[in-house]
Amino acid sequence: MTARDLALALARAPLTIGADSGADRLMAAGIVPHAVIGDFDSVSSATRNALPPDRLHLMADQDSTDFDKALRRVTAPVILALGFAGARMDHGLAVMNALVRHWQRPCIVIGPKDIAFAAPPRLTLRLRVGDAFSLFPLAQITGTSTGLHWPLEGLAFAPDGMIATSNRVSAPLVQWHLSGPGMIAIAPRARLDQVITALTPAPPDAPAARGG
Description:
By secondary structure, the protein is of the alpha/beta class. The chain has helices at residues 3-10, 22-28, 45-50, 66-73, 89-101, 192-199, and strands at residues 17-19, 35-38, 56-58, 79-81, 107-110, 114-119, 122-126, 132-137, 143-146, 164-168, 173-178, 183-188.
């Protein structure tokens, strides 16, 4: 997590949550987290002692990761996750697992070049023609799409079978209808704002869109 990463995220999501020792990294950057969530097995005592008790949210179970714990506790239109696209493969797989299990809590994991999020069953994304775009299944899924060079129609996706990585955008609007949740979408980091817009729930009283 670099200073550039933090500036990018804070400009769009100003409330900060430290997932266990993530709070230490925020404090080291001069940012006091609004909350710390985790089993507290790695956050420093200095950080814990520096924060008001009502900002510390202990979840002591050892059957879930700190990222999973944070997703379960945080309620926001869209969550931006930094520091979870690291070098350890097991950590990365656990993050993808949590994304799809909690797909109804929109969360975007920001990496050095790409962003990843759980693909909801239906979505419309405004991207740029020629953008790289990937879908990776963590469940058995079928679907249809428009705006991708290689469409999804007629394919049965599975983590141990057909996947949809290394695709590319062929039209400004990318749409898909999937048979259910369980797919990870990966887009260029430069399209973060477009993905945030697409994943942000419409207000309950927003008028229905009309064709024309």
